[in-house]
Specification:
The protein is of the alpha/beta class. It has two domains: 168 residues, Glycogen Phosphorylase B (Rossmann fold), CATH 3.40.50.2000; 166 residues, Rossmann fold (3-Layer(aba) Sandwich). The protein has a six-stranded parallel beta sheet. Strand 8, helix 8 and strand 9 form a beta-alpha-beta unit. Helix 4 packs antiparallel against helix 5. The protein is globular. 46% of the residues are buried.
Length: 361
């Protein structure tokens, strides 16, 4: 049931090629708390999403008091700012510069494109009235990198769709322990660590197998490598639909929530899939980091392991496989913290506080 609103209207702007989960959960959380939203949304693959989004923005912003520029408004935030003097809350969510330069290595750190991106990112952050990031650690990093005052930046954790990700009766599967991982395969996620754990320390555990969902140059390369080496303990599904991801989480005994690399921002972010797995009440193994420890206690909400360490990950998997009581306790703790703090209606509390302050101002 919706709660009493804030007394103002929020223009909810999003122009992206998909209805991104970050925006979906913010929208759900705000609606559940009675926030009045005027939508300016254009989610499509075509480049025309930008002009269409702006047309809808012009209609919605006139009747609104505040703008929420959702992920990702990086390219056109300057235009949103030009078209209104009303306060803008910018859900930067991630650093585009870090994603392009540090994660994907598209440009060298000292290259001209890298410098342009950094300047553009700083300009966006400074023209917004308030900024949202995905963790406290990430907010601190971005604030320090771009000289943003602490009171201008907040964090709202990633959540997930409650109507899709919830505890389900475990589906029947083959004997043994089924471990599940899904991802896009970017270096940040550390799939190489997972692969090395199963082909190294866990290679003599015939009772433990890994199911992999996702496709990228990295994942596909490891699939070919596994085929050449005759690895039978890893099954590659390729890219699968969301409903298939849910089915695979449901039948998993252990879920790998990442991130396991030691690259770039791995210490500052929490993988979105971790929230989905925890919402479904699964025992999840996470790479240890300051961001992870903001929310989760080791051996209570998740099992934490050292990042960039295949032996540490293998040890964590084996421990959960061999200790049913610990696995069950962590699964219960995961679902509990999700219900208490991370459901969309609770997760958006920092954003609601920001909106309230901007309305009062």
């Amino acid at each position: 049931m919706a709660k009493e609103g804030l007394g103002g209207r929020v223009c909810f702007f999003q122009a992206y090629y998909t209805d991104y989960i970050r925006a979906q959960t913010l929208k759900r959380g705000l609606k559940a708390n009675g926030v009045d939203l005027a939508y300016a949304v254009a989610n499509m693959a075509s480049i025309f999403r930008y002009p269409l989004g702006i047309v809808r923005y012009l209609g919605a912003v006139r009747s609104s008091d505040i703008v929420l520029a959702n992920f990702r408004s990086f390219e056109i935030l300057w235009l949103l700012r030009l078209l209104t003097r009303k306060p803008i809350v910018y859900d930067a969510y991630i650093s585009v510069w870090a994603s392009v330069v540090e994660e994907r290595h598209w440009f060298g750190e000292d290259s001209i494109p890298s410098r342009i991106l950094r300047i553009w990112e700083r300009a966006n952050l400074r023209m917004a009235d308030h900024i949202l990031m995905d963790t406290k650690a990430h907010a601190g990093l971005i604030g320090q990198m771009h000289g943003i005052k602490e009171d201008k930046i907040s964090h709202v954790y990633i959540s997930c769709e409650d109507d899709l990700f919830f505890p389900q009766q475990k589906a029947q599967c083959s004997d043994g322990i089924n471990v599940f991982w899904c991802g896009s395969g970017i270096p940040l996620q550390g799939f190489s660590v997972i692969y090395d754990a199963f082909t190294g320390p866990l290679s003599d555990r015939a009772d433990i197998s890994l199911t992999v969902a996702g496709s990228s140059d990295i994942i596909d390369g490891y699939e070919r490598k596994a085929d050449r080496e005759g690895i039978k303990s890893i099954r590659f599904l390729g890219r699968i639909e969301r409903d298939e991801v849910i089915k695979n989480i449901a039948k998993a005994d252990i879920c790998l929530g990442g991130h396991y690399s030691d690259e770039g921002k791995a210490a500052y972010v929490i993988a979105g899939k971790a929230f989905e797995m925890m919402a479904m009440g699964k025992p999840v193994i996470l790479g240890d980091s300051p961001a992870v420890r903001e929310l989760f206690t080791d051996r209570e909400h998740a099992l934490l392991c050292k990042r960039e360490d295949a032996k540490a990950l293998a040890s964590a998997i084996a421990e959960l496989a061999d200790d049913a009581a610990l696995s069950q306790a962590i699964a219960g703790g995961a679902r509990r913290i999700y219900e208490e703090s991370l459901m969309p209606e609770r997760n958006v509390k920092p954003l609601i506080d920001v909106i309230g302050k901007l309305l009062d101002r």
